[in-house]
């Protein structure tokens, strides 16, 4: 790792004015990350030479003392005035008010996990799962078996919500325990890799809806969420598929994503990275499912597995898509503040007790993106203060009804599909 400013030429002011493409600005200091391998993946490279990464670092590493030590071990220098003028947001009052709100909420205890909530969430998943298999295995009628499959699918989907909380270290608040729980819940409950999810999802949180940065936009060929992604599509089969994507998304595409993750993407990642503990969770999942389905033939077992996967995939992926995919995108060279990303690229959905349960409080997506390590059950109450902050600074606080937002999401898929193969402007949708 070279010294910061190592490529600077001669001259008294050269070290100040030269490009700083290997430096990340955090709390007034420029940290040189050239050659640094971030354990969370390539997310740090999105922040090199761009904007102020203070909020991004704080919100991702709020519970990690190790991250603070690693940061301090990197070469650093005070940020010169001319670089600060390029990198620090002109919206200083907004940034200051957000930082104050964050500190106030921490001091008031809003980031403290609740063990009662943890026990409730895990017990709920186990109860729904057990009821589902009881109805599936104990009753001969198709109606009760269908109800059982529905409940198992919902429980698998709710494992997705639960592991999401563990991945953000907002479940127990202990990084090691939350990541262990996430690996167990995601591996046994969904047949997916916690490590893969964290790397991809953290990129999304750092730069939501930003082209070439947010992996949630990198979804071709199965689906496209923005017209900027489909203008160069020329394959006739893919064009026909995309034109039908609004109709196919819930019943077909969600299942294909589920199976692709379970059978190819995540096992390949675990082999490449040596995540053998996650393979153990996978093994437990399939051994348990095979044992429970012991009275069924192999074709019947595979059919039940596919039906469960379709229900769980539709449940989790459709609900996740409501919060972002129908919104505009940011260009790769655009720089927004942490708060502006939440305002411009996230949607809150219907503050209703059932929707709150159905979406595990992630219908408060604005609050979740501002405070990813805050336990999600606290979002409804903190949303009042977030909305006041947005109103003070003239930011959009996007709030929609559940079915209205579902209509917007499917309508956007239809619109984008119609644009497949059509040349689009640089700004996209």
Report on this model:
With 429 residues, the protein is mostly helical. It has two domains: 14-87, Flavocytochrome B2, Chain A, domain 1 (Roll); 89-429, no CATH class. The protein has helices at residues 14-17, 54-60, 65-73, 81-87, 92-107, 115-138, 142-167, 175-190, 194-206, 236-243, 245-273, 276-292, 298-321, 338-345, 353-358, 365-370, 379-392, 402-418; strands at 23-26, 29-32, 76-78, 348-349, 399-400. Strand 1 (23-26) and strand 2 form a beta hairpin. The longest helix is centred in the middle third of the chain and has 29 residues, at 245-273. The two termini are 41 Å apart.
Topology:
Elements (H helix, E strand, L loop, with lengths): L13 H4 L5 E4 L2 E4 L21 H7 L4 H9 L2 E3 L2 H7 L4 H16 L7 H24 L3 H26 L7 H16 L3 H13 L29 H8 L1 H29 L2 H17 L5 H24 L16 H8 L2 E2 L3 H6 L6 H6 L8 H14 L6 E2 L1 H17 L11
Parallel strand pairs: 4-5
Antiparallel strand pairs: 1-2, 2-3
Strand order of the largest sheet: 1-2-3
| Radius of gyration, taken over Cα atoms and rounded to an integer in Å | 23 Å
**Given the helix and strand composition, which structural class is it?**
mainly alpha
Q: Low-confidence stretches at least 5 residues in length (pLDDT < 50)?
A: 1-17, 424-429
Q: So how many helices? A: 18
Tell me the overall shape: globular
SSE order, as H and E? HEEHHEHHHHHHHHHHHEHHHEH
Strand fraction equals under 5%
Distance between the termini: 41 Å
For the record, the count of structural domains works out to 2
Mean pLDDT: 90
The biggest beta sheet is recorded as:
3 strands, antiparallel
Beta strand count: 5
Fraction of residues in H or I helices: 55-70%
């Amino acid at each position: 790792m070279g010294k910061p400013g190592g490529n600077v030429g001669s001259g008294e002011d050269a070290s100040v004015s030269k490009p700083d493409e290997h430096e990340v600005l955090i709390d007034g200091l420029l940290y040189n990350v050239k050659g640094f391998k971030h354990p969370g993946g390539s997310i740090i490279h999105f922040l090199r030479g761009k904007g102020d990464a203070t909020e991004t670092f704080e919100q991702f590493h709020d519970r990690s003392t190790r991250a603070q030590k690693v940061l301090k071990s990197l070469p650093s220098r005070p940020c010169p005035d001319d670089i600060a003028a390029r990198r620090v947001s002109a919206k200083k009052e907004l940034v200051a008010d957000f930082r104050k709100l964050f500190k106030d909420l921490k001091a008031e205890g809003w980031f403290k996990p609740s063990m009662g909530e943890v026990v409730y969430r895990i017990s709920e998943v186990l109860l729904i799962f057990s009821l589902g298999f009881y109805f599936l295995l104990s009753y001969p009628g198709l109606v009760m078996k269908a109800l059982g499959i529905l409940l198992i699918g919902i429980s698998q989907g709710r494992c997705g919500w639960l592991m999401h909380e563990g991945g953000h270290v907002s479940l127990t608040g202990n990084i090691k325990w939350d990541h262990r729980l996430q690996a167990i819940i995601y591996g046994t409950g969904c047949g997916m890799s916690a490590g893969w999810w964290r790397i991809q999802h953290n990129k999304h949180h750092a730069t939501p809806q930003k082209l070439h940065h947010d992996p949630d936009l990198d979804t071709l060929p199965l689906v496209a969420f923005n017209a900027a992604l489909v203008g160069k599509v020329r394959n006739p089969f893919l064009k026909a598929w995309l034109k039908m994507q609004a109709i196919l998304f819930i019943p077909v595409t969600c299942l294909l994503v589920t199976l692709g993750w379970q059978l190819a993407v995540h096992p390949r990642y675990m082999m490449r990275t040596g995540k053998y503990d996650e393979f153990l969770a996978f093994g437990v999942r399939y051994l348990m499912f095979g044992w429970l389905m012991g009275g069924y033939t192999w074709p019947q077992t595979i059919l039940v597995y596919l039906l469960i996967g379709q229900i769980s995939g539709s449940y989790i992926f459709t609900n996740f898509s409501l919060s972002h995919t129908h919104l505009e995108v940011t260009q790769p060279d655009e720089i927004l503040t942490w708060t502006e990303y939440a305002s411009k690229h996230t949607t809150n959905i219907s503050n209703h007790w059932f929707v709150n349960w159905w979406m595990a409080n992630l219908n408060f997506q604005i609050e979740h993106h501002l405070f990813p390590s805050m336990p999600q059950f606290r979002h409804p109450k903190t949303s009042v203060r977030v909305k006041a902050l947005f109103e003070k600074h003239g930011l959009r606080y996007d709030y929609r009804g559940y079915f209205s937002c579902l209509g917007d999401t499917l309508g956007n898929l239809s619109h984008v599909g119609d644009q497949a193969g059509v040349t689009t402007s640089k700004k996209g949708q």
